[in-house]
Design a protein that fits this description.
alpha/beta, four-stranded antiparallel beta sheet, 12 strands
């Protein structure tokens, strides 16, 4: 079984490297740019790094890098928040089914697809051009285990049959200016996620710390899941981790992450990310105004949500 997995992974990596070989001959410049709604989807080569951005049409500006990878090491997750998203494996190390709302350059799905060759990974994204960029420039190849549906991430989850459950659910959904859709941040949405989870499933959410409603989004998440952890990255991103399984203490989270690191031989430091996890009183102390924050609901978006600085 282990030999079969390793043989498949060797072949998969070789095929991935072959799909990416053309990038090495490209000059350092924009290698993909297409019109997509309110923005352009742009892919830039910078030495061995390939970067995907959503560029606003109005001022040709973006302050949020969607995806990045190094074609010399395509299974390495460059962004630390993407490394933190892999902490879902601490709670579910052999998931049968994973759902991801938001695709971007497909970095997390690609890495999960490689290391978990028996896992089905379903994704949803509203931007078909970004998916085109991922398959053309990021080495992503869709198959019977890795699929993307062009659809709103919440609608996709709502429309699944009641008997379909996921061990891991992730949401990583931003526009180029950092806007996070309200309908993917409410108590009702997280209740839907909980309903679609397996008995000891885990949900992970990427948030921007500069979000004006950062504390409200964490408070809303806490209102649904019995255990909530936060893995912050500098002053930029935070990954929320929520589960309805048995409570894990910090030392157990770190021990499990080290086991995964050693077993899969990840090139990125999953153990380091686990050591950054905050839970309990440490979490409360790290989030200003958390106790006084309101819970977000579908029918009552807070004043200023849609016209805040993010827009």
């Amino acid at each position: 079984m282990i030999d079969d997995r390793q043989n498949w992974q060797r072949m998969n990596l070789a095929a991935l490297q072959q799909r990416l070989a053309w990038l090495q001959q490209q000059p350092d410049k924009v290698i993909f740019c297409k019109d997509s709604g309110v923005h352009y989807v742009a892919v830039t080569k910078d030495r061995s790094h390939i970067k995907l951005s959503l560029v606003e049409k109005v001022n040709l500006h973006t302050d949020l890098l969607q995806s990045v990878f190094d074609f010399n090491n395509p299974l390495h997750l460059v962004s630390e928040y993407t490394q933190a998203m892999m902490l879902g494996l601490v709670w579910q190390n052999q998931p049968q089914r994973i759902y991801i709302a938001g695709f971007g350059g497909g970095r997390i799905p690609l890495v999960l697809h490689h290391y978990l060759p028996e896992t089905v990974i379903e994704c949803a994204d509203v931007d078909p051009i970004a998916i085109q960029a991922a398959t053309q420039c990021f080495g992503v190849q869709l198959d019977d285990r890795l699929s993307v549906t062009i659809q709103d991430g919440r609608e996709y989850l709502e429309q699944q049959k009641p008997d379909i459950q996921y061990e891991i659910i992730m949401t990583d959904v931003f526009f180029g200016n950092g806007y996070f859709p309200h309908r993917l941040a409410t108590k009702e949405f997280y209740q839907l996620c909980e309903k679609r989870l397996s008995r000891e499933g885990v949900v992970l959410v990427n948030l921007l710390q500069r979000d004006e409603f950062y504390a409200e989004k964490i408070k809303t998440f806490q209102s649904v899941f019995s255990q909530v952890c936060v893995c912050p990255w500098k002053d930029i991103n935070s990954v929320l981790i929520g589960t309805k399984s048995a409570l894990l203490e910090k030392d157990e989270i770190v021990a499990r992450a080290k086991y995964l690191q050693d077993g899969y031989q990840f090139s990125f430091p999953l153990t380091d990310r686990s050591q950054e996890v905050k839970l309990g009183t440490e979490l409360a102390e790290a989030i200003p105004n958390l106790d006084r924050s309101q819970i977000l609901h579908d029918d009552a978006p807070p004043v200023g949500y849609f016209d805040s600085w993010l827009l």
